[in-house]
Design goal:
The chain is an alpha/beta fold. Helices cover about 25% and strands about 25% of the residues.
Length: about 325
């Protein structure tokens, strides 16, 4: 029996609940591939799954979906980048040795040295060849932030010189959104803390607003689109005021508006954007695998800039 190292979460709780253990390497079926995971990410979704700290009205649905007393899938983690080491008999898109990235969906399991996943999109994950010009750690940022941002922005027909406000522009999805919109020729106003002004300007933001400063409300303009990249649970007076600066309420969108769509086709488009230099993924910090608990503690503080990656193997 082959053994791998993995972080398991047997019950809900603080970051310390995560334990590094030895587990069986997954056995693949004909429609699956086995990936040697080189990097993963700690996302806000991972924090919710580990802690079960969700809004009271969502607690029962969350527990029914994820697990009553703890996650049904004891190895959690949703984002991966790595190399295919084995393919099932019916696999057509990939071959052994391909470098891939993606999300695990309801199957979770990215906090491990090996992860199996289906070749085609499902609620249990999506996978694509990763960009050739970035590291595994950067690929996890591109996958998560890219899927989140483009799912919403690709629906909107943003034109050159359209004014778009990105609330939470220093988040993983916000960073992707700013760069993607600038490539379309939009005028981008970035909302973040004042300490991150220079950073978002380096991404291409035309104007910056501090969500901590109510004086920023006076600087709001009329926008084609307002995109909330931090979610509805995190608000401010500035965010409330944004709804008065759009023509139609449908022009205020949030990453919480719908479930994340797991799309390998979108991952392929993200790959092209990264290789062309349109999108440059950003990691705030990179932790070694054995410091997964510390990575969770840092993300839980809520002050990260971009992605927090974890190197699973070197």
């Amino acid at each position: 029996m082959e053994i791998m190292n993995a972080f398991v979460c047997k019950r809900y709780g603080s970051p310390e609940i995560l334990q590094l253990q030895q587990c069986k390497v997954p056995t693949i079926r004909s429609s699956e591939i086995l990936i040697r995971v080189y990097a993963t990410s700690v996302t806000n979704s991972d924090i919710f799954i580990r802690s079960s700290k969700v809004a009271k009205n969502l607690l029962i649905p969350f527990r029914l979906m994820i697990g009553i007393w703890g996650p049904r899938k004891k190895i959690i983690g949703q984002v991966f980048a790595g190399e295919i080491i084995q393919t099932g008999k019916s696999i057509k898109r990939f071959k052994k040795g391909d470098k891939v990235y993606g999300l695990t969906g309801f199957s979770l399991g990215a906090y491990a040295e090996f992860k199996k996943i289906k070749e085609h999109n499902s609620k249990k994950g999506c996978v694509s060849l990763m960009p050739t010009n970035i590291s595994y750690e950067e690929a996890t940022a591109a996958a998560y932030g890219g899927l989140l941002a483009l799912q919403f922005l690709e629906k909107k027909k943003i034109k050159e010189n359209d004014k778009v406000l990105i609330y939470g522009s220093a988040s993983t999805s916000g960073i992707t959104a700013v760069q993607y919109l600038k490539n379309l020729g939009a005028e981008v106003t970035s909302v973040c803390s004042e300490a991150k002004f220079d950073f978002v300007r380096s991404l291409g933001a035309d104007k910056v607003l501090d969500y901590n400063n109510d004086d920023s409300i006076k600087k709001l303009e009329k926008y084609t689109l307002v995109f909330d990249c931090v979610g509805k649970a995190r608000g401010s007076n500035l965010k409330k005021a944004c709804s008065q600066h759009i023509s139609n309420q449908n022009d205020f969108i949030s990453i919480d508006d719908e479930a994340l769509v797991l799309s390998s086709e979108r991952l392929e488009r993200i790959k092209e954007f990264v290789e062309r230099g349109v999108i440059n993924p950003v990691n705030d910090r990179i932790y070694p695998f054995e410091e997964m608990v510390e990575a969770h503690k840092y993300v839980e503080l809520g002050h990260k800039t971009g992605n927090v990656a974890v190197t699973v193997a070197t």
